[in-house]
Design a protein that fits this description.
Blueprint lengths: L4 H29 L5 H10 L1 H11 L1 H25 L1 H92 L4 H29 L7 E3 L1 H16 L5 E5 L7 E3 L1 H18 L5 E9 L2 E7 L28 H11 L3 E6 L5 E8 L6
Parallel strand pairs: 2-4
Antiparallel strand pairs: 1-3, 4-5, 5-7, 6-7
Helix pairs in contact: 1-2, 1-3, 1-4, 3-4, 3-5, 4-5, 5-6, 6-9, 7-8, 8-9
Length: 368
């Protein structure tokens, strides 16, 4: 079992204090053995006293430095006595050295205490910052849990609302069939309603499951130009005689992208259909891609009515939609897919009219 840090510090302090006393005594002993005629040896030992004095001052402060200096001065008295008989000049030099011992000990101790106080203040500040950081981390984790609970609540409320409408249509159509069983036209019309609302429910639940339980991407090499052609071919069915031109802008040297081809096409098709639905007759929707260092940037630009500023922060929220027939999950699923690929999906207003959705994806997946 390890000793507490306070006990260790006390133990080491005792060792240092004992070492200082022993050092002064040892220097004094050897100093007294040096002949008075050996001036060089005398000067060396006289200056050696500064070492334990400085160690005491730096370790324990100015009081300890002064105490060590006084002890060194007292240990020096026998040598001063002998020097006085040899010649007053040498003795005076020895006596004047004692105040210098005291000055050195006090000055070094004051500097040491100032540095120690600064270090202690820094340690306290560091501990306080660490405590604040831990508290922030705990608060952040609590916020994330609250956000997840809020998202679950929003999803549940939105799903219930979206399911209720088709179910009401199905129930109404079934009631009409029951009351007008002999009318073939009513029967056909109600069956069409039931089929349409059933398909709507299926799309809603599929989108919800894609959002709630997204499958991990199955990475393969994607030839972007061909993928964009495929998306444009699929999106032409959404035009439905609407006079809108779909345009592709891709440089010839565009590198391959590593990702899930089906998921990337799903995202781009969703963005392209949204752009087509938002575009007025006679306008143009541009699907472009370019290489940007280790990333690829894909943009879908339309010239429609755009997104209201107050809705721009909500468009990726589950079940948020401004369409009468929309589920509000398309952009949420697209945003989640792009995040799974390590990319970013953003929307910004065009300078003139309409909106541009940008998909930024890394060319290589992380860790590959």
């Amino acid at each position: 079992m390890t000793e507490p840090s306070a006990t260790k510090r006390s133990k080491y302090s005792g060792i240092r204090a004992t070492s200082v006393v022993l050092a002064i005594c040892s220097i004094s002993l050897f100093h007294h053995l040096v002949p008075l005629s050996d001036l060089h040896g005398h000067v060396v030992f006289q200056h050696l006293y500064y070492l334990p004095i400085l160690v005491a001052a730096l370790s324990f402060g100015w009081a300890a430095g002064l105490a060590a200096a006084v002890l060194a001065g007292l240990s020096h008295i026998p040598y001063i006595y002998l020097s006085w008989h040899a010649g007053p000049y040498y003795a005076i030099d020895e006596i004047l050295e004692i105040p210098l011992f005291c000055i050195a000990g006090v000055f070094a101790g004051i500097l040491s205490e100032r540095e120690r106080k600064q270090r202690e203040h820094l340690e306290r500040t560091t501990d306080q910052l660490a405590a604040v950081y831990r508290e922030l981390q705990e608060s952040f984790e609590r916020m994330k849990r609250v956000e997840r609970l809020y998202a679950v609540g929003q999803l549940s409320a939105g799903l219930a609302h979206e399911i209720r409408n088709p179910l009401a249509g199905i129930a109404g159509a079934a009631g009409i069939i029951e009351r007008n069983s002999s009318s073939e036209s009513k029967r056909t019309e109600c069956l069409s309603i039931i089929k349409k609302e059933t398909e709507r429910l299926n799309r809603l639940l599929t989108s919800f499951l894609d959002f709630a339980r997204p499958r991990p991407p199955q990475y393969r090499a994607i030839e972007l130009s061909g993928a964009l052609d495929s998306v444009i071919d699929l999106a032409t069915h959404a035009i439905d005689r609407k006079p809108i031109q779909l345009k592709k802008e891709v440089p010839p040297d565009l590198p391959e992208l590593e990702g899930d081809p089906e998921q990337v096409k799903q995202v781009l098709l969703n963005l392209l259909i949204n752009a087509i639905q938002a575009s007025p007759d006679g306008s143009e929707v541009v699907l472009s891609a370019r290489h940007d260092h280790s990333k690829v940037v894909i943009r879908v630009k339309d010239h429609g009515c755009g997104i209201a500023p107050e809705n721009r922060e909500k468009i990726f929220d589950p079940f948020f939609t401004t369409k009468e027939s929309g589920t509000g999950l398309g952009l949420s699923v697209a945003h989640q897919i792009i995040e799974q690929h390590g990319g970013i999906l953003t929307a910004e207003a065009n300078p003139d009219r309409g909106t541009t959705f940008s998909v930024v994806l890394p060319l290589k997946r992380a860790g590959s």
